[in-house]
Automatic annotation (TrEMBL):
Protein name: Primosomal protein DnaI
Pfam family, one: IstB_IS21
Domain IstB-like ATP-binding: 151-306
Matching SUPFAM superfamilies: P-loop containing nucleoside triphosphate hydrolases (SSF52540)
Length: 309
């Protein structure tokens, strides 16, 4: 049995190809993205292949859920119009997810003291056991993540409770979820971070390390109150970080201490006389800008240790 191609002459086949190309080109110029581009730059004559790339890469971005599902050939990038030397060019540029990924990588390279165990950093909300003792804290954490808007979300969370009840796991799930949503987020174990800051006085880079925490869109300070606080780390490290962030960028805390206990901790700095005024100043940068989430229940770390013996 002969195919249509066998019956048609070379001229007829070529004519069919050209007609399909013309139909495709007509549809391209009618597309809303191309219409916007042509209206924005009416004097420019863009090469046809670049117009197809502009349309397709930007269409793929409209329903993208993250880099893992990116459908563009150049993952995390799409065609964007750039004005260069009086003319407009279509170039590949990183999308919001790729920008966040790149920023996250720079943050991790800059701040070494994350030292949060992998099983915490890899926790997801789906994997968390949602028992009565921590369901409300998990709900608050999920709500924070799904409603987060860069530049608009300013209130953080203060997640507190006894040892081993899963506060850090909730914070780890927040880190995972925010990162998936393209938010630059940094979770730090506070005692180790303050030790790293002290060491950087001699090795250099202290200001960069402080700036990273001052400017990251979502900062998670794990186990605050467990550090051996000094007057210097309280007033010259934590103070400036929180001063910059309050009313502007949200901070999430986990702690074994209630807020009044945290204030006592800050007041009684190591090798110094009690300073309740300085402690109150730090608390004024924390307390008004967080919602409180108490976590209760059994000591999960102890239970895991007993089950493994």
């Amino acid at each position: 049995m002969k195919s249509i191609g066998d019956v048609l002459s070379n001229d007829e086949r070529w004519q069919m190809i050209m007609e399909k190309a013309k139909q495709s080109e007509d549809l391209l110029y009618k597309h809303e993205l191309i219409q916007w581009l042509m209206n924005r730059f009416p004097e420019e004559k863009f090469p046809l292949p670049e117009l197809y790339e502009f349309r397709d890469t930007n269409m793929h971005c409209t329903d993208c859920k993250g880099l893992e599902t990116c459908r563009n050939f150049f993952i995390g990038h799409r065609k964007t119009a750039f004005e260069v030397s009086g003319r407009v060019e279509l170039r590949f540029s990183p999308c919001e997810h790729q920008q966040s990924h790149d920023h996250q990588r720079r943050l991790k390279a800059l701040v070494k003291s994350q030292f949060v165990p992998d099983h915490i950093m890899n926790t997801t909300f789906e994997a968390l056991e949602k028992d009565a003792g921590r369901i409300e804290a998990i709900k608050a954490a999920i709500n924070f993540c799904v409603s987060f808007e860069r530049g608009k979300t300013t209130r953080g969370l203060y997640i507190y409770g006894p040892f081993g009840v899963g506060k850090s796991a909730i914070a780890g799930a927040m880190t995972q979820e925010l990162a998936k949503r393209g938010v630059d987020v940094l979770m730090l174990y506070v005692p180790d971070y303050l030790m790293e800051i002290k060491a950087s006085i001699e090795t250099g880079g202290m200001e960069q390390k402080l700036e990273a925490l001052k400017n990251v869109s979502a900062l998670i300070l794990d186990d605050i109150g467990a550090e051996a606080i000094t007057a210097w780390t309280r007033d010259e490290v934590l103070g400036p970080i929180l001063q910059r962030r309050m009313e502007k960028l949200p901070t999430i805390y986990t702690s074994n201490l209630k807020l009044d206990e945290l204030e006592q901790h800050f007041a009684k700095a190591k090798n110094s006389e009690p300073n309740y005024r300085s402690a109150a100043r730090i608390m004024e940068r924390i307390e008004p800008f967080v919602d409180y989430c108490e976590v209760k229940g059994r000591n999960r770390r102890r239970a895991q240790k007993q089950s493994s013996t």
